[in-house]
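Continued from yesterday's entry.
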Amino acid sequence: MTYGCFNQAVKLNEATRDAWIEILRRVPGSKLFLKNAAFGDEDLRQRWRADFASMGVASDRLIFEGWTEKDDYLASFQRVDVGLDPFPYTGGTTTIESLWMGVPVVTRLGQTLISRQGYGIMMNVGLGEWVASDWPSYIDKAVDVAADLGALALLRRGLRDRVCHSPVLDAPRFARHMREALFGMWSRYGAGKIDSPGEKAASARKAVYQTSIEPERPVWVVSATQRSEQEFWECSALGRSLREHLALDRRLEPCIAFDNRRGLPEVFNAAIDRAPPDGVLIFIHDDVWIDDVDGFADRVLSGLLEFDVIGVAGNRRRMPGQTAWGFLDTRFTPEDPRNLSGRIGHGAHPGDAKVSNFGTMPAACELLDGVFIATTKKALAGTGVQFDPRFGFHFYDLDFCRAARKAGLRLGTWPIALTHQSVGGYFNREWLKASQSYLAKWKR
């Protein structure tokens, strides 16, 4: 694993250096490639070698290179696996060049304009999971990516195409938004309107969504609840968290079955039938908090660029007679953790949730947890895959995954922040009855 940073040396402060030292210490055999004009100076190289050596990182794990012509500079990214952004002066052009050359970048989010450059770029190419909120999470993200080189290779292969189809390189769209923003500010000034602090904060959050990927694509949030409509929006985890996102992202459209007594497959299939041809479908339980502060729809859309169906937790394999994505049989035999992937919180509220980390993601999977499943109308319409009505609540998700894989669809986990208020209902009478129907249908 070779980490790299091609930003100017003046950005590389002590805190950034210490974070990189910790990353190299936690990833045995990894190296750090630093390239910019300043590193053509041997004295500077020696100082960096001494600093790393004093913290237990051998000098031969550092690679230095000075200024080169543009073509050679871009070619140097081929020697880097993962980019590391400095902080608080994050990369701008360098980060875009890195992504263009197929190298994703771990960045940190700050409060100032210059410390949010990396965040803005990564969010706009649908890689919000590469953004850290502090140094510990920055280090963890850089370390964790080294644990699944297959997933990294998959991401890198499609990275240039992702950048090409993102707002980062959509100049006409940027110009249109800039024009609208300037005229909007001038109109408000001319009208004598002064925003309150709350209105300014809301405008800032809306700006995040105005720079999202696929800004016109409809994203349906499909769920069923036994609550009334009013109770759902005021009391349920999904309703309360979804309200904030609906106010900020016009792509999101709730498709909720209130006062519901039907099975989930019936509700979900009705949504599939009604969804527009370019629609995205998110099937989610009503006792789930959407924890992403912003960019929820973008996060889902970015996952669907890599897979046909995504979830937040799943199993990379499927065994004969398996009756749950995380367990092997009706005796509750746990699956080998090495085969699991994903992450989700459990608790009454996000603030007191206990996060379950099942394994590295993104990862291609055979089975997904039904608490959250997202896909597209195009993927389902093209294969005829739907939910089987015989599985009202239990096993509808496993059955759907089996049908999707049989139809050739690609399943995978994707980092989306959720908190589930329940841990699932296994081994009650209804579950056992459904397990018999499921095993009878699929035979193995």
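--- second protein ---
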Amino acid sequence: MSAHTPGPWHVGGIFMPNSDDPRANVWGPTPQGFQSGLVICKKAKPMDARLIAAAPDLLRACIESRKLGMKIYHNANAHEAAMDWGKVKALMDAAIEKAEGKAVRE
């Protein structure tokens, strides 16, 4: 597993919500006894902040989907399953590698 700040991450506070350019911070989990967690990202656009906050969850979903897909693939008999699985696996591998900071295959 990567060395990123563990989730869950959340969006905390939107700055200048009524302006044309509102911004938000993304925070990591709050340790017991602390008022807040680590700042993951500062002053992101709210839509970007939500996507950033979802990153640990998206990574976990990709990892688990890949595991499940491998089980399905190894039990499939249809030749189309192998082609479909290859495309899906490549997309998931790229997303996992990017999230974990590894080299992404082109």
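Residues 56-99 form one domain. DSSP finds three helices and three strands in the chain. Will compare against the first tomorrow.
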